[in-house]
Amino acid sequence: MKTVLDTRNLAETLTAYAQNTRRIALKMICASGLGHIGSDFSAAEILTTLYGAVLRIDPKQPRDPNRDRFILSKGHASGALYATLAQAGFFPIEELKTYMQPFSRLNGHPDRNSVPGVEANTGPLGHGMPIAVGCALAAKLKRASWRVFVLTGDGELQEGSNWEAAMAAAHFGLDNLTVTVDRNLFQQGGSTEKTIRLEPLVDKWRAFGWAVREVDGHDPAALLEAYSAIPFKPGCPSCLIARTHKGHGVSFMRDNPAWHHRVPDKKEMSAALAELGEEIRS
User: Fold this and answer.
1) Got the DSSP string for 65-101?
2) Mean pLDDT for each consecutive 10-residue tract of the chain (282 residues)?
3) What CATH number corresponds to the domain at position 213?
4) I need a surface site. Which of 15, 101, 152, 268 has the fewest CB within 10 A?
5) What is the pTM assigned to this prediction?
């Protein structure tokens, strides 16, 4: 995303890109009648910051062996990922109109065999972390310089495979691995703490041998500062717990678990776009 990297006011530009990601994802979901809008909106700044300023990756060479790897473990947030990838130049923005349509390569969950920039097929929760650990270990064995980033949901951490992967990452000293937890406090059906309590989450990650920081996940400046400090501790994998809000950016969606999988009607779409800064013309 060279337009982002060349801008002086980087954090402000990333914020604008994140809002555009939300507008695009909203339109995609409304057009297809399918999607996970709450998760897309909570992850927008994280994805925009990674692709706009952190990842060493060239959209013209998405399989460059020296690229950084990013894995969207919470694969249901594909709308935000596709919007981010298209804005970064991995494929034409016009293709976003095919989201979840018959024969489209933009499925509800990302497919690495079809979509440039997608590193792993994700959707079943708890799979992204183990894949990321394998990628990071491969880089260590090859003495390669590329890094691995993975974005998980907080409700997803109820899957035991994540903690097995976390133990392995610490055991092998994978300081080329960074996990970002989208800590929006909600999952399908309700809050994470009422479903299966995750707190104290920072202590859990530290107990597994990770170096941990917390950050406002909707503040690109704070995200940039955190990502610039990785690895947080040499010899240890890094965990960034990003405090976010499900449905962030739209007042009637924010912190409302009903919007995990709900699709807005026309009136709700117009109201949401207005809050996201897009004028609706009759």
Assistant:
1) TTS-EEEESSGGGHHHHHHHHHHHTSS-GGGGGGTT-
2) 52 96 97 96 98 97 97 97 97 97 94 96 94 98 98 96 98 98 93 94 98 98 97 98 98 95 96 85 38
3) 3.40.50.970
4) 101
5) 0.94
